[in-house]
Amino acid sequence: RLREERMLPFLLDTGQVTPAMMSELAELLARFHADAERATGIDPAHYPALVQAQWSDNLTDFARVSNPIIDAENCLAVEKFGAEFFARHSETLKRRAARGWLRDVHGDLHTEHVCFAPEGIQIFDCIEFEPKFRQCDLAAEIAFLIMDIEVRGGATLIAPFLQRYRQLIDDPEADDLLPFWKCYRALVRAKVYALRGVSGLDMASRYARYASGLAWTP
Asked: 103 pairs with which residues across the strands?
């Protein structure tokens, strides 16, 4: 059993995470991503429409639970943010699908699935039941993790993480994609916590505020 006090959320909550730990995590993920198999069966020409459909489905699901955690103005801002992203970056998405940036990776990489165990970092609980659900852009996977770290108060730890990751994975387009994928993943986590009822509303609100904050950022 992995020890609770070595799990990343606990370490973030108690202020124990260091830049060196983030660099070590970045190295592990970069090696994993570099060796990951390319996703197959995705037509680059249709990939933007696929992502847009996922975004729209996510917004629809989120709208069903959003009333207690986000107001209408911020919901509209998030919708507009997504629409503007697709208007600007559809060609980027096609290009990334064609050039192999879509890989068979973890698929559910948030902080609850990372443990800084004494024997080394353990990352667990990838999506197993449906392989296509873990096939995604490497930027989308990294966005999930850094979003969750930021929501949990670790914003100052992102720079050392990204610096080391980028030394090993040269991805000059990632900065254009990270805000969208962070927003998308934050809405997913907000929805998951909102579905837990009253006990999850506080965390759901934190993720929703984060998503709307990205939507308002120039």
From this structure: 38, 136
The DSSP annotation for 111-144 comes to GGGEEEETTEEEE-----S-GGGGEEEHHHHHHH
Rounded CA gap, 50 and 54, in Å? Answer: 6
> Which residue(s) pair with 122 in the sheet?
115
Reported pTM? 0.96
**46, 81, 214, 215 from 218: Cα distances, Å:** 28, 10, 8, 8
Radius of gyration of the CA atoms of the chain, in A: 17
pLDDT of residue 40: 87
pLDDT in tens, 165-206: 999 999 999 999 999 999 999 999 999 999 999 999 999 999
Burial (CB < 10 A; 0-12, 13-18, 19+), residue 82, is buried
Q: Give dist(CA 5, CA 182) in Å, integer.
A: 26
